[in-house]
Amino acid sequence: MEQSSQAGEDRAPEASAVAAPDSGPDPLWWQHPNPLGRGAALGGMAGIAAPLLAGFSLTLVGVIAQSPTSFRWPGADLAVLVIPIALLVACVQFGFRARSYLYSAADVAAWRPDCNVQFPDVLKRDQIDEFECWQVWEKRAGRAYNLAICVLAVGVALVVAPPANGQEAAWRWLASAFAFTAGAAEALWILGGRILSI
């Protein structure tokens, strides 16, 4: 009986070594977004909001090009609206690039359960490097999106300005002023967040 018990004790480390790959990488050194929901927020920004706003801006450009006499400054409207379209498309591209570098410890445990046991140093180094790449592209996507929102507000303000001899000019000027104010508020909010994060 004693020999059997001793044999069981000898086999215990082997069993734990076999089960170790399923536990995944050590969470103590795993790099992660801060706050934790930042990765999902990037997906919503670059994968949903930016394409929708780019489509809206492109549609507005088409309307202005087909009926320039309905707008006070059609040329300026087109010139300004092209900027957020380009920025929003860039945001989508940057977001796709960033997403390719972000993965969780559970992803590694599911896809390559052998890495944590056989190549722990390589896994740690690669994850740190790729998380830094994610941070770079995530920041670029955020900056492109924020700038696009500010410029889009200016573009909308120019679009809703009343044409010469237009009807309800006072209401349209009020709408234009509100759009400019919204863009300025967005810019202040972005700058305020940057100052607070320093």
Topology:
Blueprint: H1 2-23, H2 38-66, H3 74-99, H4 105-111, H5 115-118, H6 120-160, H7 169-197
Helix pairs in contact: 2-3, 2-6, 3-6, 6-7
What does this protein structure show overall?
By secondary structure, this protein is an all-alpha fold. The chain has one domain. It has seven helices and no strands. It has helices at residues 2-23, 38-66, 74-99, 105-111, 115-118, 120-160, 169-197. The longest helix has 41 residues, at 120-160. The radius of gyration is 27 Å and the shape is elongated.
Number of strands: 0
Shape category: elongated
What is the strand content? under 5%
Helix content: over 70%
Structural class: mainly alpha
Instruction: Report the order of strands and helices.
Output: HHHHHHH
Main sheet: strands, sense, barrel = none
Distance between the termini: 67 Å
Short description:
The protein has 198 residues and is mostly helical. It is built from 7 helices and no strands.
Name some characteristics of this structure:
198 residues, mainly alpha
